């Protein structure tokens, strides 16, 4: 799977291509510089979201933020800005390629909206096989399709492995050792749920005990054993998609002139 920065790079390239599409259809649009970067996500979740996979595991972050993640929970920001006089709802319709009001889709230039809208066209530039939106403008990946930056098979193994071993005897024993380490808090749950059962001041102890008790090592070893078998069985398909993702990152960098 791509790491968080690579996924952000692809997303930013899609923003640039989306804006190009809007401008070609007569809008005056620019890329929104205030849609955030990958920095916060990488800092608090890690390149592959591993910092929080098993609960709060970083003592330094626990000391500064407790169990919380200081991410922006404000309203969704559009990836583009429109010049004065252009209608945002009209632009959203063109981006989605679907009118949620049932009205026809119009563009300032009078040119027709490309199939799937500007967002789909941007995705196709990054990945020519990108899944298309359905009749109501939404992409359904249940049929096995992919979007730029995604690796459904690897993501499935990544998710399945966690739930396959979380209740294993080995993880259970390590979990008991962790509870012994945080005994002074009186918490009787598991590390992934500690944020709901412990107070902010307990976060550094919880994180330190995850390492001291061996909980992290045991959980990771159990997951790796599960994943290795799945990787061996699906190696060809995994490598094929991984190669496609590398190409997508390179295409994104070309779009961004990086």
Can you describe this structure?
The chain has 258 residues and is mainly α. It is 53% helix and 2% strand. The chain is built from eleven helices and two strands; from the N terminus they run αβααβαααααααα. It has helices at residues 4-24, 39-45, 59-65, 88-96, 117-126, 152-165, 169-181, 194-197, 203-212, 215-233, 235-256; strands spanning 29-31, 80-82. The chain is elongated.
Primary descriptors:
2% strand; mainly alpha; elongated; 258 residues; coiled coil
Short description:
The protein is mainly α. Helix content is 53%, strand content 2%.
Tell me the layout of helices and strands.
Blueprint: H1 4-24, E1 29-31, H2 39-45, H3 59-65, E2 80-82, H4 88-96, H5 117-126, H6 152-165, H7 169-181, H8 194-197, H9 203-212, H10 215-233, H11 235-256
Antiparallel strand pairs: 1-2
Keywords: Coiled coil
Strand content: under 5%
What is the molecular shape? elongated
Number of helical elements: 11
Enumerate the strands of the largest sheet in spatial order, edge to edge or round the barrel.
1-2
Number of strands: 2
Keywords: Coiled coil
Coiled coil: 228-255
């Amino acid at each position: 799977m791509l790491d968080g920065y690579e996924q952000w790079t692809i997303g930013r390239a899609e923003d640039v291509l989306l804006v190009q599409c809007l401008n070609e259809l007569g809008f005056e649009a620019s890329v929104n510089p205030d849609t955030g970067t990958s920095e916060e996500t990488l800092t608090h979740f890690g390149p592959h979201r591993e910092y929080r996979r098993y609960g709060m595991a970083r003592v330094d972050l626990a000391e500064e933020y407790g169990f919380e993640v200081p991410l922006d929970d404000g309203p969704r920001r559009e990836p583009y800005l429109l010049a004065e006089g252009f209608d945002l709802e009209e632009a959203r319709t063109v981006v989605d390629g679907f009118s949620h009001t049932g009205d026809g889709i119009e563009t300032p230039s009078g040119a027709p909206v490309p199939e799937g809208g500007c967002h789909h066209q941007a995705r196709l530039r990054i990945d020519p096989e990108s899944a298309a939106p359905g009749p109501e403008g939404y992409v359904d990946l249940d049929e096995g399709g992919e979007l730029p930056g995604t690796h459904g098979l690897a993501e499935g193994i990544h998710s399945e492995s966690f739930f396959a071993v979380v209740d294993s005897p080995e993880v259970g024993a390590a979990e008991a050792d962790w509870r012994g380490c945080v005994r002074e808090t009186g918490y009787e749950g598991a590390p992934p749920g500690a944020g709901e059962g412990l107070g902010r001041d307990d976060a550094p102890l919880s994180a330190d005990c995850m390492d001291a008790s061996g909980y992290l090592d045991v959980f990771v070893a159990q997951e790796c054993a599960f994943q290795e078998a799945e990787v061996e069985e699906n190696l060809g398909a995994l490598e094929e998609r991984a190669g496609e993702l590398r190409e997508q990152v390179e295409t994104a960098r070309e779009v961004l002139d990086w």
